[in-house]
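Please predict the structure of the following assembly.
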Amino acid sequence: MTDGVSLNNLNVVYSDKRVLQELTANLGASRLTALIGPNGSGKSTLLRAMAGLIPYEGSLTLGDREIRRWTRRELGRKVGFLPQNGSVTFPFVACDLIDLGRLPRRRAFQIRTGRDDGATVRAARAVGVEPLLFRSMKELSGGESQRVMIAMLLNQDPDLFLLDEPTSSLDPGQAVAVLSLFRRLTQRGKTVVVAAHDINGVLTWADSVMALKKGRLLFHGAPADLTGANLEGIYDTPFTAYRSEKGETLWHASSP
Amino acid sequence: MERSCQRERELTDYRRRRTGRFLLLLAFMAVLLLVVSLVRVTSGDWEIPPLRALALLFGVIDGKGSPELLVVRTLRLPRLLAAVGAGGALATSGVVLQGVLSNPLAEPYTLGIASGAAFGASVGFFLGGPWITPASFLGAFGALWLVWILASRCGGATTAHLVLAGIIVNAFLSAGVTLLKALADDRLGAIVLWLMGGFSGAAKESAFAVWLGGALVLLPALGAAHELDALSIGEERGTLLGIEERRLRLILLATSALATALTVSHFGIIGFVGLVAPHLLRIFLGPRHLPLLLASFLGGGTLLAAADGMAQKLGELPVGVITALLGGPVFCWILLRGSRP
Protein backbone atom coordinates (compact mmCIF):
# COMPACT_ATOMS: atom_id res chain seq x y z
CA MET A 1 0.00 0.00 0.00
CA THR A 2 1.44 3.34 -0.95
CA ASP A 3 0.69 6.91 -0.04
CA GLY A 4 -1.65 9.30 -1.76
CA VAL A 5 -0.96 12.94 -2.45
CA SER A 6 -2.95 15.74 -0.79
CA LEU A 7 -3.04 19.35 -1.86
CA ASN A 8 -4.38 21.88 0.60
CA ASN A 9 -4.54 25.51 -0.47
CA LEU A 10 -1.46 24.93 -2.63
CA ASN A 11 0.07 28.00 -4.25
CA VAL A 12 3.16 28.30 -6.42
CA VAL A 13 4.59 31.71 -7.19
CA TYR A 14 7.17 32.35 -9.93
CA SER A 15 8.67 35.85 -9.87
CA ASP A 16 5.49 37.49 -8.50
CA LYS A 17 3.25 35.50 -10.82
CA ARG A 18 0.89 33.05 -9.16
CA VAL A 19 1.20 29.93 -11.34
CA LEU A 20 -0.89 27.67 -9.11
CA GLN A 21 -3.68 29.16 -7.05
CA GLU A 22 -5.41 27.70 -4.01
CA LEU A 23 -5.45 24.12 -5.18
CA THR A 24 -7.16 21.72 -2.79
CA ALA A 25 -7.58 18.11 -3.81
CA ASN A 26 -6.90 14.59 -2.74
CA LEU A 27 -5.18 12.25 -5.18
CA GLY A 28 -5.92 8.85 -3.77
CA ALA A 29 -3.27 6.17 -3.48
CA SER A 30 -3.16 3.38 -6.09
CA ARG A 31 -5.04 5.49 -8.59
CA LEU A 32 -4.26 6.89 -12.00
CA THR A 33 -5.11 10.57 -12.16
CA ALA A 34 -5.25 12.39 -15.48
CA LEU A 35 -4.10 15.99 -15.30
CA ILE A 36 -5.56 18.02 -18.15
CA GLY A 37 -5.77 21.67 -19.11
CA PRO A 38 -4.66 24.12 -21.79
CA ASN A 39 -1.03 25.12 -22.40
CA GLY A 40 0.31 27.18 -19.53
CA SER A 41 -2.45 26.07 -17.15
CA GLY A 42 0.10 24.89 -14.57
CA LYS A 43 0.10 21.12 -15.19
CA SER A 44 3.88 20.83 -15.37
CA THR A 45 4.29 23.18 -12.42
CA LEU A 46 2.01 21.00 -10.31
CA LEU A 47 4.00 17.90 -11.25
CA ARG A 48 7.26 19.69 -10.47
CA ALA A 49 5.93 20.76 -7.09
CA MET A 50 4.90 17.17 -6.34
CA ALA A 51 8.41 16.02 -7.33
CA GLY A 52 9.87 18.45 -4.81
CA LEU A 53 11.64 20.44 -7.50
CA ILE A 54 10.14 23.85 -6.74
CA PRO A 55 9.13 25.70 -3.57
CA TYR A 56 5.43 26.05 -2.80
CA GLU A 57 3.10 27.71 -0.31
CA GLY A 58 0.33 25.92 1.51
CA SER A 59 0.35 22.20 2.00
CA LEU A 60 1.39 19.38 -0.32
CA THR A 61 1.75 16.04 1.37
CA LEU A 62 2.92 12.65 0.24
CA GLY A 63 1.59 10.12 2.76
CA ASP A 64 1.49 12.11 5.97
CA ARG A 65 4.58 14.21 5.38
CA GLU A 66 5.03 17.52 3.56
CA ILE A 67 6.97 17.11 0.29
CA ARG A 68 9.44 19.75 1.44
CA ARG A 69 10.22 17.69 4.56
CA TRP A 70 11.41 14.63 2.61
CA THR A 71 15.13 14.43 1.95
CA ARG A 72 16.24 14.35 -1.67
CA ARG A 73 17.31 10.71 -1.42
CA GLU A 74 13.98 9.70 0.15
CA LEU A 75 12.17 11.49 -2.66
CA GLY A 76 14.39 9.69 -5.17
CA ARG A 77 13.03 6.39 -3.87
CA LYS A 78 9.43 7.57 -3.41
CA VAL A 79 8.78 9.75 -6.44
CA GLY A 80 9.64 9.19 -10.09
CA PHE A 81 9.21 12.06 -12.52
CA LEU A 82 9.26 11.82 -16.31
CA PRO A 83 9.93 15.36 -17.57
CA GLN A 84 8.58 16.54 -20.90
CA ASN A 85 12.06 17.08 -22.28
CA GLY A 86 13.58 13.63 -22.55
CA SER A 87 16.79 14.64 -24.28
CA VAL A 88 20.10 13.39 -22.97
CA THR A 89 23.19 15.63 -23.15
CA PHE A 90 25.78 12.87 -23.51
CA PRO A 91 25.15 9.76 -25.65
CA PHE A 92 24.82 7.11 -22.95
CA VAL A 93 24.13 3.52 -23.93
CA ALA A 94 20.47 2.67 -23.15
CA CYS A 95 21.30 -0.04 -20.58
CA ASP A 96 23.48 2.39 -18.59
CA LEU A 97 20.72 4.96 -18.53
CA ILE A 98 18.14 2.42 -17.37
CA ASP A 99 20.58 1.22 -14.72
CA LEU A 100 20.88 4.76 -13.34
CA GLY A 101 17.29 4.41 -12.13
CA ARG A 102 18.66 2.27 -9.26
CA LEU A 103 20.84 5.16 -8.05
CA PRO A 104 18.58 6.29 -5.15
CA ARG A 105 18.70 2.75 -3.74
CA ARG A 106 22.42 2.20 -4.18
CA ARG A 107 24.84 2.81 -1.35
CA ALA A 108 28.11 4.62 -1.95
CA PHE A 109 30.74 2.40 -3.61
CA GLN A 110 28.22 -0.44 -3.95
CA ILE A 111 29.20 -2.71 -6.83
CA ARG A 112 26.65 -3.53 -9.53
CA THR A 113 25.54 -7.15 -9.46
CA GLY A 114 23.68 -9.61 -11.67
CA ARG A 115 20.51 -8.61 -9.85
CA ASP A 116 20.87 -5.08 -11.20
CA ASP A 117 21.23 -6.47 -14.72
CA GLY A 118 18.04 -8.48 -14.17
CA ALA A 119 16.17 -5.36 -13.08
CA THR A 120 17.45 -3.44 -16.10
CA VAL A 121 16.28 -6.18 -18.49
CA ARG A 122 12.84 -6.39 -16.82
CA ALA A 123 12.33 -2.62 -16.99
CA ALA A 124 13.40 -2.57 -20.64
CA ARG A 125 11.08 -5.44 -21.52
CA ALA A 126 8.09 -3.74 -19.90
CA VAL A 127 8.26 -0.95 -22.49
CA GLY A 128 9.61 -3.05 -25.36
CA VAL A 129 13.11 -1.56 -25.56
CA GLU A 130 14.92 -4.80 -24.78
CA PRO A 131 16.41 -4.99 -28.31
CA LEU A 132 17.77 -1.45 -27.89
CA LEU A 133 19.70 -2.13 -24.66
CA PHE A 134 23.14 -1.87 -26.25
CA ARG A 135 22.37 1.07 -28.51
CA SER A 136 23.60 4.60 -27.92
CA MET A 137 20.88 7.15 -27.14
CA LYS A 138 21.97 9.31 -30.07
CA GLU A 139 21.02 6.52 -32.50
CA LEU A 140 17.48 6.20 -31.13
CA SER A 141 14.34 7.88 -32.46
CA GLY A 142 12.28 10.23 -30.29
CA GLY A 143 9.81 7.51 -29.36
CA GLU A 144 12.57 5.01 -28.62
CA SER A 145 14.43 7.41 -26.31
CA GLN A 146 11.20 8.28 -24.54
CA ARG A 147 10.56 4.59 -23.85
CA VAL A 148 14.14 4.18 -22.58
CA MET A 149 13.52 7.07 -20.18
CA ILE A 150 10.30 5.36 -19.05
CA ALA A 151 12.29 2.15 -18.50
CA MET A 152 14.71 4.11 -16.31
CA LEU A 153 11.73 5.39 -14.32
CA LEU A 154 10.36 1.84 -13.92
CA ASN A 155 13.77 0.70 -12.71
CA GLN A 156 13.65 3.50 -10.12
CA ASP A 157 10.51 1.75 -8.82
CA PRO A 158 8.96 4.72 -6.97
CA ASP A 159 5.56 4.69 -5.21
CA LEU A 160 4.41 7.83 -7.01
CA PHE A 161 4.87 8.21 -10.77
CA LEU A 162 4.57 11.72 -12.21
CA LEU A 163 4.44 11.67 -16.00
CA ASP A 164 4.52 14.84 -18.07
CA GLU A 165 3.20 14.01 -21.55
CA PRO A 166 4.58 10.45 -21.48
CA THR A 167 3.08 9.54 -24.85
CA SER A 168 3.88 12.74 -26.78
CA SER A 169 6.37 11.08 -29.14
CA LEU A 170 4.86 7.59 -29.16
CA ASP A 171 2.74 6.08 -31.91
CA PRO A 172 -0.86 5.11 -30.95
CA GLY A 173 0.05 1.47 -30.31
CA GLN A 174 2.96 2.33 -28.05
CA ALA A 175 0.96 5.03 -26.30
CA VAL A 176 -1.75 2.52 -25.38
CA ALA A 177 0.86 0.01 -24.26
CA VAL A 178 2.53 2.57 -21.98
CA LEU A 179 -0.72 3.84 -20.45
CA SER A 180 -2.05 0.33 -19.84
CA LEU A 181 1.29 -0.54 -18.22
CA PHE A 182 0.89 2.32 -15.73
CA ARG A 183 -2.73 1.32 -15.24
CA ARG A 184 -1.52 -2.16 -14.23
CA LEU A 185 1.00 -0.56 -11.88
CA THR A 186 -1.84 1.13 -9.95
CA GLN A 187 -3.24 -2.35 -9.32
CA ARG A 188 0.11 -3.15 -7.70
CA GLY A 189 -0.27 -0.19 -5.36
CA LYS A 190 1.48 2.55 -7.32
CA THR A 191 0.02 6.04 -7.62
CA VAL A 192 0.24 7.61 -11.08
CA VAL A 193 -0.39 11.17 -12.25
CA VAL A 194 -0.34 11.76 -16.02
CA ALA A 195 -0.40 15.22 -17.55
CA ALA A 196 -1.60 15.00 -21.14
CA HIS A 197 -3.14 16.91 -24.02
CA ASP A 198 -4.52 13.79 -25.68
CA ILE A 199 -7.57 13.62 -23.42
CA ASN A 200 -9.15 10.58 -25.08
CA GLY A 201 -5.88 8.66 -24.73
CA VAL A 202 -5.56 9.32 -21.04
CA LEU A 203 -9.22 9.40 -19.91
CA THR A 204 -9.71 5.80 -21.03
CA TRP A 205 -7.17 4.67 -18.43
CA ALA A 206 -7.77 7.21 -15.64
CA ASP A 207 -9.58 6.68 -12.33
CA SER A 208 -10.01 10.40 -11.91
CA VAL A 209 -9.46 13.65 -13.78
CA MET A 210 -8.06 16.94 -12.55
CA ALA A 211 -8.50 19.90 -14.87
CA LEU A 212 -6.46 23.06 -14.42
CA LYS A 213 -6.92 26.43 -16.07
CA LYS A 214 -4.77 29.47 -15.33
CA GLY A 215 -3.47 27.73 -12.23
CA ARG A 216 -6.92 27.03 -10.76
CA LEU A 217 -8.69 23.72 -10.33
CA LEU A 218 -11.73 23.67 -12.65
CA PHE A 219 -12.77 20.04 -12.35
CA HIS A 220 -11.86 17.09 -10.18
CA GLY A 221 -13.84 13.87 -10.44
CA ALA A 222 -14.40 10.64 -12.32
CA PRO A 223 -13.87 10.68 -16.11
CA ALA A 224 -17.50 9.62 -16.54
CA ASP A 225 -18.67 12.82 -14.81
CA LEU A 226 -16.81 15.07 -17.22
CA THR A 227 -19.26 16.88 -19.50
CA GLY A 228 -18.92 18.74 -22.77
CA ALA A 229 -19.63 21.96 -20.89
CA ASN A 230 -16.76 21.19 -18.48
CA LEU A 231 -14.37 20.67 -21.38
CA GLU A 232 -15.57 23.81 -23.17
CA GLY A 233 -14.93 25.76 -19.99
CA ILE A 234 -11.43 24.32 -19.80
CA TYR A 235 -10.30 24.66 -23.42
CA ASP A 236 -12.61 27.49 -24.63
CA THR A 237 -13.83 25.41 -27.52
CA PRO A 238 -17.00 23.27 -27.91
CA PHE A 239 -16.64 19.50 -27.45
CA THR A 240 -18.87 16.78 -28.85
CA ALA A 241 -19.12 13.35 -27.25
CA TYR A 242 -19.06 10.16 -29.29
CA ARG A 243 -19.57 6.65 -28.05
CA SER A 244 -17.22 3.95 -29.30
CA GLU A 245 -18.27 0.40 -30.10
CA LYS A 246 -16.78 -0.61 -26.75
CA GLY A 247 -18.97 1.92 -24.97
CA GLU A 248 -16.18 4.40 -24.18
CA THR A 249 -16.93 8.12 -24.39
CA LEU A 250 -14.65 9.94 -26.80
CA TRP A 251 -14.39 13.71 -27.06
CA HIS A 252 -13.94 15.70 -30.22
CA ALA A 253 -13.09 19.40 -30.19
CA SER A 254 -14.85 21.39 -32.87
CA SER A 255 -14.43 24.99 -33.97
CA PRO A 256 -16.51 27.48 -31.97
CA MET B 1 11.84 -16.68 -18.80
CA GLU B 2 14.46 -18.44 -20.93
CA ARG B 3 14.69 -15.38 -23.16
CA SER B 4 15.01 -13.01 -20.22
CA CYS B 5 17.84 -15.04 -18.70
CA GLN B 6 19.59 -14.98 -22.04
CA ARG B 7 19.21 -11.20 -22.24
CA GLU B 8 20.61 -10.85 -18.73
CA ARG B 9 23.60 -12.95 -19.70
CA GLU B 10 24.06 -10.80 -22.80
CA LEU B 11 24.01 -7.69 -20.63
CA THR B 12 26.50 -9.12 -18.15
CA ASP B 13 28.75 -10.22 -21.05
CA TYR B 14 28.46 -6.82 -22.65
CA ARG B 15 29.61 -5.10 -19.45
CA ARG B 16 32.46 -7.57 -19.03
CA ARG B 17 33.66 -7.04 -22.59
CA ARG B 18 33.45 -3.30 -22.13
CA THR B 19 35.51 -3.43 -18.94
CA GLY B 20 38.07 -5.54 -20.80
CA ARG B 21 38.27 -2.98 -23.61
CA PHE B 22 38.67 -0.19 -21.07
CA LEU B 23 41.53 -1.97 -19.28
CA LEU B 24 43.21 -2.60 -22.63
CA LEU B 25 42.92 1.09 -23.52
CA LEU B 26 44.25 2.06 -20.09
CA ALA B 27 47.23 -0.28 -20.54
CA PHE B 28 47.89 1.15 -24.00
CA MET B 29 47.77 4.68 -22.60
CA ALA B 30 50.10 3.75 -19.77
CA VAL B 31 52.60 2.38 -22.31
CA LEU B 32 52.23 5.55 -24.38
CA LEU B 33 52.90 7.66 -21.30
CA LEU B 34 55.99 5.59 -20.50
CA VAL B 35 57.31 6.04 -24.04
CA VAL B 36 56.68 9.79 -23.98
CA SER B 37 58.30 9.98 -20.55
CA LEU B 38 61.38 8.11 -21.70
CA VAL B 39 61.74 10.38 -24.71
CA ARG B 40 61.30 13.44 -22.52
CA VAL B 41 63.87 12.33 -19.99
CA THR B 42 66.52 11.31 -22.51
CA SER B 43 66.26 13.94 -25.21
CA GLY B 44 67.17 17.60 -25.11
CA ASP B 45 70.31 19.63 -25.63
CA TRP B 46 72.17 16.72 -24.14
CA GLU B 47 71.04 13.35 -25.52
CA ILE B 48 71.32 10.48 -23.05
CA PRO B 49 70.80 6.90 -24.34
CA PRO B 50 67.48 5.61 -22.92
CA LEU B 51 68.97 2.50 -21.32
CA ARG B 52 71.70 4.51 -19.65
CA ALA B 53 69.12 7.01 -18.36
CA LEU B 54 67.03 4.21 -16.87
CA ALA B 55 70.08 2.54 -15.35
CA LEU B 56 71.13 5.83 -13.80
CA LEU B 57 67.67 6.58 -12.44
CA PHE B 58 67.19 3.16 -10.89
CA GLY B 59 70.72 3.04 -9.51
CA VAL B 60 71.93 0.14 -11.67
CA ILE B 61 74.91 2.31 -12.61
CA ASP B 62 76.44 4.36 -9.84
CA GLY B 63 75.94 7.85 -11.16
CA LYS B 64 76.99 9.78 -8.09
CA GLY B 65 78.24 13.17 -9.16
CA SER B 66 77.53 12.39 -12.81
CA PRO B 67 76.29 15.46 -14.66
CA GLU B 68 73.89 13.26 -16.65
CA LEU B 69 72.11 12.16 -13.49
CA LEU B 70 72.00 15.74 -12.30
CA VAL B 71 70.33 16.86 -15.54
CA VAL B 72 67.79 14.04 -15.40
CA ARG B 73 67.01 14.39 -11.70
CA THR B 74 66.88 18.13 -11.26
CA LEU B 75 65.74 19.34 -14.67
CA ARG B 76 64.04 16.75 -16.84
CA LEU B 77 62.21 14.63 -14.30
CA PRO B 78 60.53 17.55 -12.45
CA ARG B 79 59.58 19.08 -15.79
CA LEU B 80 58.08 15.80 -17.01
CA LEU B 81 56.20 15.22 -13.76
CA ALA B 82 54.90 18.79 -13.80
CA ALA B 83 53.59 18.44 -17.35
CA VAL B 84 51.95 15.07 -16.64
CA GLY B 85 50.37 16.29 -13.38
CA ALA B 86 49.12 19.53 -14.91
CA GLY B 87 47.69 17.71 -17.93
CA GLY B 88 45.97 15.20 -15.68
CA ALA B 89 44.55 17.92 -13.43
CA LEU B 90 43.27 20.01 -16.34
CA ALA B 91 41.74 17.07 -18.23
CA THR B 92 40.06 15.74 -15.08
CA SER B 93 38.73 19.22 -14.27
CA GLY B 94 37.32 19.31 -17.79
CA VAL B 95 35.49 16.00 -17.34
CA VAL B 96 34.13 17.04 -13.95
CA LEU B 97 32.92 20.44 -15.16
CA GLN B 98 31.32 18.97 -18.28
CA GLY B 99 29.53 16.36 -16.19
CA VAL B 100 28.47 18.62 -13.32
CA LEU B 101 27.08 21.24 -15.68
CA SER B 102 25.80 18.75 -18.25
CA ASN B 103 27.56 20.84 -20.84
CA PRO B 104 30.08 19.41 -23.33
CA LEU B 105 31.66 22.83 -23.80
CA ALA B 106 32.45 23.44 -20.13
CA GLU B 107 36.03 23.57 -18.92
CA PRO B 108 37.98 25.81 -16.51
CA TYR B 109 37.86 28.67 -19.03
CA THR B 110 34.15 28.64 -19.83
CA LEU B 111 33.39 29.20 -16.17
CA GLY B 112 35.92 31.96 -15.71
CA ILE B 113 37.89 29.86 -13.21
CA ALA B 114 41.13 29.99 -15.21
CA SER B 115 40.75 33.72 -15.84
CA GLY B 116 40.11 34.21 -12.14
CA ALA B 117 43.23 32.23 -11.28
CA ALA B 118 45.24 34.17 -13.87
CA PHE B 119 43.95 37.51 -12.61
CA GLY B 120 44.70 36.56 -9.02
CA ALA B 121 48.16 35.35 -9.96
CA SER B 122 48.83 38.57 -11.91
CA VAL B 123 47.93 40.58 -8.84
CA GLY B 124 50.24 38.26 -6.90
CA PHE B 125 52.96 38.87 -9.48
CA PHE B 126 52.56 42.57 -8.86
CA LEU B 127 52.81 42.13 -5.09
CA GLY B 128 55.81 39.83 -5.28
CA GLY B 129 56.73 36.15 -5.67
CA PRO B 130 55.22 34.45 -2.58
CA TRP B 131 51.80 35.97 -3.23
CA ILE B 132 51.27 34.34 -6.60
CA THR B 133 49.77 31.01 -5.49
CA PRO B 134 47.46 32.27 -2.70
CA ALA B 135 46.29 35.17 -4.86
CA SER B 136 45.56 32.71 -7.66
CA PHE B 137 43.43 30.58 -5.31
CA LEU B 138 41.51 33.65 -4.27
CA GLY B 139 41.07 34.66 -7.91
CA ALA B 140 39.77 31.23 -8.95
CA PHE B 141 37.38 30.93 -5.99
CA GLY B 142 36.33 34.55 -6.35
CA ALA B 143 35.51 34.04 -10.01
CA LEU B 144 33.62 30.83 -9.27
CA TRP B 145 31.72 32.51 -6.45
CA LEU B 146 30.86 35.45 -8.69
CA VAL B 147 29.67 33.12 -11.45
CA TRP B 148 27.63 31.10 -8.94
CA ILE B 149 25.99 34.20 -7.41
CA LEU B 150 25.30 35.76 -10.79
CA ALA B 151 23.74 32.54 -12.09
CA SER B 152 21.68 31.93 -8.93
CA ARG B 153 20.35 35.49 -8.87
CA CYS B 154 19.18 35.40 -12.47
CA GLY B 155 17.06 32.29 -12.30
CA GLY B 156 18.78 29.42 -10.54
CA ALA B 157 22.19 27.85 -11.02
CA THR B 158 21.22 26.12 -14.24
CA THR B 159 23.68 25.23 -16.97
CA ALA B 160 22.82 28.05 -19.33
CA HIS B 161 22.96 30.65 -16.58
CA LEU B 162 26.28 29.35 -15.26
CA VAL B 163 27.93 29.44 -18.66
CA LEU B 164 26.52 32.90 -19.43
CA ALA B 165 27.77 34.18 -16.09
CA GLY B 166 31.12 32.53 -16.84
CA ILE B 167 31.43 34.43 -20.10
CA ILE B 168 30.74 37.75 -18.38
CA VAL B 169 33.22 37.11 -15.56
CA ASN B 170 35.77 35.83 -18.09
CA ALA B 171 35.60 38.98 -20.18
CA PHE B 172 35.86 41.20 -17.12
CA LEU B 173 38.85 39.39 -15.61
CA SER B 174 40.69 39.08 -18.92
CA ALA B 175 40.43 42.85 -19.23
CA GLY B 176 41.79 43.07 -15.68
CA VAL B 177 44.80 40.95 -16.62
CA THR B 178 45.44 43.13 -19.69
CA LEU B 179 45.27 46.23 -17.50
CA LEU B 180 47.76 44.73 -15.04
CA LYS B 181 50.06 43.81 -17.92
CA ALA B 182 49.96 47.43 -19.09
CA LEU B 183 50.75 48.68 -15.60
CA ALA B 184 53.54 46.18 -14.99
CA ASP B 185 56.07 47.94 -17.32
CA ASP B 186 59.42 46.24 -16.66
CA ARG B 187 57.84 43.08 -15.31
CA LEU B 188 55.65 42.93 -18.41
CA GLY B 189 57.79 40.39 -20.24
CA ALA B 190 57.69 37.94 -17.34
CA ILE B 191 53.89 38.14 -16.94
CA VAL B 192 53.25 37.71 -20.65
CA LEU B 193 55.52 34.66 -20.82
CA TRP B 194 54.07 33.11 -17.66
CA LEU B 195 50.48 33.65 -18.84
CA MET B 196 51.28 31.85 -22.10
CA GLY B 197 52.06 28.76 -20.06
CA GLY B 198 55.17 26.61 -19.91
CA PHE B 199 57.11 24.03 -17.93
CA SER B 200 60.62 25.25 -18.59
CA GLY B 201 62.53 25.27 -15.32
CA ALA B 202 59.72 23.53 -13.39
CA ALA B 203 60.68 22.85 -9.77
CA LYS B 204 59.92 19.67 -7.84
CA GLU B 205 57.61 21.64 -5.53
CA SER B 206 55.55 22.95 -8.44
CA ALA B 207 55.28 19.43 -9.86
CA PHE B 208 54.04 18.24 -6.48
CA ALA B 209 51.50 21.08 -6.35
CA VAL B 210 49.85 20.12 -9.64
CA TRP B 211 49.76 16.43 -8.71
CA LEU B 212 48.06 17.45 -5.48
CA GLY B 213 45.58 19.46 -7.55
CA GLY B 214 45.00 16.45 -9.79
CA ALA B 215 44.35 14.16 -6.82
CA LEU B 216 42.02 16.72 -5.23
CA VAL B 217 39.80 16.85 -8.29
CA LEU B 218 40.09 13.18 -9.28
CA LEU B 219 39.39 11.37 -6.00
CA PRO B 220 36.06 12.97 -4.98
CA ALA B 221 34.88 12.71 -8.60
CA LEU B 222 35.71 8.99 -8.71
CA GLY B 223 33.76 8.53 -5.48
CA ALA B 224 30.74 10.24 -7.01
CA ALA B 225 31.17 8.80 -10.52
CA HIS B 226 27.62 7.39 -10.75
CA GLU B 227 26.15 10.61 -9.37
CA LEU B 228 28.15 12.49 -12.01
CA ASP B 229 26.58 10.22 -14.65
CA ALA B 230 23.14 11.25 -13.39
CA LEU B 231 24.04 14.95 -13.28
CA SER B 232 25.45 14.83 -16.78
CA ILE B 233 22.21 13.50 -18.33
CA GLY B 234 20.59 16.90 -18.03
CA GLU B 235 19.19 19.56 -15.76
CA GLU B 236 17.45 18.29 -12.61
CA ARG B 237 18.05 14.65 -13.57
CA GLY B 238 20.41 14.21 -10.64
CA THR B 239 17.89 15.75 -8.24
CA LEU B 240 15.17 13.40 -9.50
CA LEU B 241 17.50 10.46 -8.85
CA GLY B 242 17.88 11.45 -5.21
CA ILE B 243 21.08 13.50 -5.36
CA GLU B 244 21.60 16.73 -3.42
CA GLU B 245 22.54 18.33 -6.70
CA ARG B 246 23.50 21.78 -5.42
CA ARG B 247 25.81 20.40 -2.74
CA LEU B 248 27.54 17.91 -5.02
CA ARG B 249 27.93 20.55 -7.71
CA LEU B 250 29.45 22.99 -5.26
CA ILE B 251 31.96 20.43 -3.93
CA LEU B 252 33.05 19.31 -7.38
CA LEU B 253 33.19 22.85 -8.76
CA ALA B 254 35.36 23.86 -5.80
CA THR B 255 37.83 21.00 -6.28
CA SER B 256 38.07 21.80 -10.00
CA ALA B 257 38.72 25.43 -9.12
CA LEU B 258 41.46 24.40 -6.71
CA ALA B 259 43.13 22.16 -9.29
CA THR B 260 42.91 24.90 -11.92
CA ALA B 261 44.35 27.51 -9.55
CA LEU B 262 47.27 25.24 -8.66
CA THR B 263 48.02 24.65 -12.33
CA VAL B 264 47.59 28.25 -13.52
CA SER B 265 49.55 29.78 -10.65
CA HIS B 266 52.56 27.55 -11.31
CA PHE B 267 52.54 27.13 -15.06
CA GLY B 268 50.25 29.78 -16.54
CA ILE B 269 47.26 29.37 -18.79
CA ILE B 270 47.29 26.14 -20.81
CA GLY B 271 44.13 25.84 -22.84
CA PHE B 272 42.26 23.04 -24.59
CA VAL B 273 43.61 20.10 -22.55
CA GLY B 274 40.38 20.04 -20.54
CA LEU B 275 38.33 19.90 -23.74
CA VAL B 276 40.37 17.77 -26.11
CA ALA B 277 41.40 14.89 -23.85
CA PRO B 278 37.89 14.14 -22.49
CA HIS B 279 36.20 14.48 -25.88
CA LEU B 280 38.70 12.23 -27.66
CA LEU B 281 38.32 9.61 -24.91
CA ARG B 282 34.52 9.76 -25.00
CA ILE B 283 34.73 8.45 -28.57
CA PHE B 284 36.26 5.23 -27.26
CA LEU B 285 34.74 4.98 -23.79
CA GLY B 286 31.36 6.67 -24.03
CA PRO B 287 30.19 9.17 -21.43
CA ARG B 288 30.35 7.02 -18.23
CA HIS B 289 32.45 8.86 -15.68
CA LEU B 290 34.28 6.08 -13.87
CA PRO B 291 36.36 4.99 -16.89
CA LEU B 292 36.38 8.49 -18.38
CA LEU B 293 37.91 10.13 -15.30
CA LEU B 294 40.74 7.61 -15.00
CA ALA B 295 41.53 7.63 -18.71
CA SER B 296 41.35 11.43 -18.89
CA PHE B 297 43.88 11.85 -16.11
CA LEU B 298 46.29 9.55 -17.93
CA GLY B 299 45.48 10.94 -21.38
CA GLY B 300 45.66 14.59 -20.34
CA GLY B 301 49.04 13.93 -18.70
CA THR B 302 50.42 12.21 -21.79
CA LEU B 303 49.06 14.89 -24.09
CA LEU B 304 50.61 17.75 -22.14
CA ALA B 305 53.95 15.96 -21.68
CA ALA B 306 54.13 15.41 -25.45
CA ALA B 307 53.07 19.01 -26.15
CA ASP B 308 55.74 20.23 -23.74
CA GLY B 309 58.30 18.14 -25.65
CA MET B 310 57.25 19.78 -28.91
CA ALA B 311 57.37 23.23 -27.31
CA GLN B 312 60.91 22.57 -26.14
CA LYS B 313 61.99 21.26 -29.55
CA LEU B 314 60.68 24.44 -31.18
CA GLY B 315 62.94 26.57 -29.02
CA GLU B 316 61.00 26.80 -25.75
CA LEU B 317 57.73 28.02 -27.19
CA PRO B 318 55.03 28.51 -24.56
CA VAL B 319 53.28 25.14 -24.26
CA GLY B 320 49.92 26.94 -24.31
CA VAL B 321 50.65 27.83 -27.94
CA ILE B 322 51.19 24.16 -28.83
CA THR B 323 48.03 22.93 -27.05
CA ALA B 324 46.00 25.67 -28.71
CA LEU B 325 47.48 24.92 -32.15
CA LEU B 326 46.78 21.20 -31.75
CA GLY B 327 43.57 21.58 -29.77
CA GLY B 328 41.84 24.13 -31.99
CA PRO B 329 41.59 21.93 -35.10
CA VAL B 330 40.84 18.81 -33.04
CA PHE B 331 38.06 20.67 -31.31
CA CYS B 332 36.59 21.87 -34.61
CA TRP B 333 36.70 18.29 -35.84
CA ILE B 334 34.84 17.12 -32.71
CA LEU B 335 32.20 19.81 -33.20
CA LEU B 336 31.70 18.92 -36.88
CA ARG B 337 31.61 15.22 -36.07
CA GLY B 338 28.99 15.82 -33.39
CA SER B 339 26.72 17.83 -35.66
CA ARG B 340 26.74 15.24 -38.45
CA PRO B 341 23.31 13.63 -38.78
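Chain B has one domain: 2-339. Chain B touches chain A at residues 4, 7-8, 10-12, 14-15, 102-104, 223, 226-227, 229-230, 232-234, 236, 239-245, 282, 286-288 (CB under 8 Å).
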